[in-house]
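Hello forum,

I keep getting stuck at the same step: I have a sequence, I want structure tokens, and every attempt I make locally crashes halfway through. Rather than fight my setup again tonight, could one of you with a working pipeline run this one for me? It's a single chain of 335 residues.
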Amino acid sequence: MKDFSEYRNIWVFVETEHGEAKNVGYELLNAARPLADGKGCELVAVVIGHGIGPVCREALCYGADSVLAVEGEEFETYSTDAFSLALIALIEKYKPDTVLFGATNNGRDLGPKVACHIKTGLTADCTGLGLNDDGENIAWTRPTFGGNLMATIICPESRPQMGTVRPGVFRKGNPDPSAAGPIVKEDIHIPPEDIRTRIIYQADAQTLSLDLEDAEIIVAGGRGMGSAENFRILKGFADEIGAYLGCSRAVVDAGWLPHTYQVGQSGKTVAPKIYFAVGISGAIQHLAGITGAETVIAINKDPNAPIFDIADYCIVGDLNEVIPALTRAYRKMKG
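Reply #2:
Ran it on my machine without issues. Output:
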């Protein structure tokens, strides 16, 4: 058995964008707390960005024992080169036992890049975390074979252990404003010539990547919407109540909406306060993506639709009648 005694502590990469944290970082701090306690080590938040002081303090409030912070103008927006070089330098210096990333677009890019460089394994798109029988290895659980089976994977031959975890799978803990701990600032800067790409943001109504993982209200449509045109009704309702628009895989397969809107096993895992499922039958692959929703409101013509088995509120009816009625009711309530 290999000696990994020099590798200690569990790290959570707290992703930021323009100085604000993605929710998944705080979700992972909550999920990793029992792992760190079980291994008898510290839970460390790693924050890389620009203007990240508030995020570092928040990370302590959400359960980190300490924070490693790398700040610089080159980290204002994400780039593979800048972030991977900074994180590799931290890992080589401190030798963590485990590193967790959110399975966001950036996390799915950064994790494999770093893992490849330091020659370790990475389990992608996890939906569950635990410790194996000896308590030494993280047991990473992820869907396989199109979501029909769940696989549990361990990495006993190399360190650090690494994995990406879907946003919305775990809930954030309750922040403790009195929490305190060291914030260690690492002076790491990446020369401009080592950053080979730059990001140009463009807002496009059809292809804009939506932060469904952070949405508090989502209005999602399924095959039962009947056509792409009917999504205009749903979009109007979503705009009215300040919600994000989502959809099932069937909608993406039909070409009615881009994949960025997809919720479910092969899409995004979400945890909104309210989730409207309109014309969604309730296939197990879709339900796997909304397990974190606090309240599910299902609207479907079929009274036997499986979605009604898990919904908190069930409305049997035609969406062309129900959605306009809900819109009118909301306007009346709002005054």
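DSSP finds eight helices and 17 strands in the chain. If your local run keeps crashing, start a new thread with the error log.
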